[in-house]
Amino acid sequence: MAGYTHSKDDHLKRLRRIEGQVRGLERMVDEDKYCIDVLTQVSAANRALQAFALELLEEHLAHCVADAVAKGGAEAEAKVKEASDAIARLVRS
């Protein structure tokens, strides 16, 4: 079971809102809106995706990584490395 399963509906709602933001960006470009206004909305969509990613990461650490660490062994090391790599990707983006 995924770490986010208990909040899956909330995540899906959030992703649909983000999808709406991106569709709104498409509309803005189609309607030749002012560049800065479009960039402002791009920034908002990026922040929304980052917030989603951080929440998902938190759930992954609390469930998937914590469960693996409790079991110990190679799986624990692999999950911690996987989480570290995911954090590094988020920081670079």
Automatic annotation (TrEMBL):
GO terms for molecular function: DNA-binding transcription repressor activity; metal ion binding; transcription cis-regulatory region binding. Transmembrane segments: none annotated. InterPro entries: Metal_Tscrpt_repr, Metal_Tscrpt_repr_sf. GO terms for cellular component: cytoplasm; protein-DNA complex. Signal peptide: none annotated. Keywords: Copper, Cytoplasm, DNA-binding, Metal-binding, Repressor, Transcription, Transcription regulation. Pfam families: Trns_repr_metal. It comes from the Bacteria. The keyword Membrane does not apply. Belongs to the CsoR family. PANTHER family: COPPER-SENSING TRANSCRIPTIONAL REPRESSOR RICR, TRANSCRIPTIONAL REPRESSOR FRMR-RELATED. This is DNA-binding FrmR family transcriptional regulator. It comes from Planotetraspora phitsanulokensis.
